[in-house]
Amino acid sequence: MKKLLSLSLIGILAILMAGCSINVSIDTPADEKNLIETPAEQQTPQVKQNTPSTPQVHTAENLLEKMSQSEKTEVNKFLSNFSEAFYGRYYSGAEAKIHFAFIHSLINSDSSTIKYEDMEMGISASETDTILNRFFGSTIPHKTPDGSKDITYKNGYFMMPAASGESYAYFSVASDMQKRSDGNFLVKFSVFFDAENAQDMLQSWYSLSYDEAVSNPQYSHEYNGEAILKQKGSTYEIVSYTTF
Fold first, then answer.
1. Confidence at residue 17, expressed as pLDDT on a 0 to 100 scale
2. Domain-by-domain residue ranges, the chain?
3. DSSP letters along the chain, please?
């Protein structure tokens, strides 16, 4: 046994002395073979997409909290012009604006601005222009609105079927007002109905806060809305108006 071990050692030493080398192959795991770094100068830079942005809210504070009572009343009163006229609830486009102008004139002007003829009633185009310029900053064409089934333009008047008995005791109360980056204001509001004064238009509605209105059982909460308002002197102009 000792002779065999000695011969084996002698054999190994002979191989080393003869200059033979033993190559050892180490397999690299597959997942390590694929980890090849791309030089920094060859890497493709990420491209940042610059997409147009819409005006965002400029400040998170509720501006109503810093307004005077008269300023808050003006916001509510302005928005109530739209809720009392059911603006955007039943009509859209030019029809909605004509109905708005008609009801606003019916509530706030003398009877000379309204025309009654046979089974129709209407408002002059000139009076419509005056009202729409005040609240929207624009007017509509003096013609029958496209696709309208209710309104016809006749001899300078927008005429529609006569109706009566409606209550306009719907008023708006703002709950949040934010300034946008374009200088306009985003206002969240709620619309209430005063059943006890259904045939009246009370000035006291416009000075209510949201908490006062929603906690008073005399007022029924009808729906909510959002409007974008543009400052126009001491009052506002509608940029957009949505109810839900």
1. 41
2. 58-84+168-244, 85-166
3. -HHHHHHHHHHHHHHHHTT-------PPPHHHHT--PPPGGGSPPPPPP-------BS-SS-GGGGS-HHHHHHHHHHHHHHHTTTTTTS--HHHHHHHHHHHHHHHHS-GGGEEEETTEEEEEHHHHHHHHHHHHS----SSPPTT-SS-EEETTEEEEE--------EEEEEEEEEEBTTS-EEEEEEEEEEGGGTT---GGGGG--HHHHHT-TTEEEEEEEEEEEEEETTEEEEEEEEE-
Question: Which residue numbers in the chain have pLDDT < 70?
Answer: 1-59
Contacts of 196 (CB under 8 A, 6+ apart): 218
pLDDT of residue 113: 85
pLDDT digits (tens, 9 = 90+) for 131-162: 999 999 999 999 999 999 999 999 999 999 99
Report phi then psi at 25, rounded to 5: -100, 120
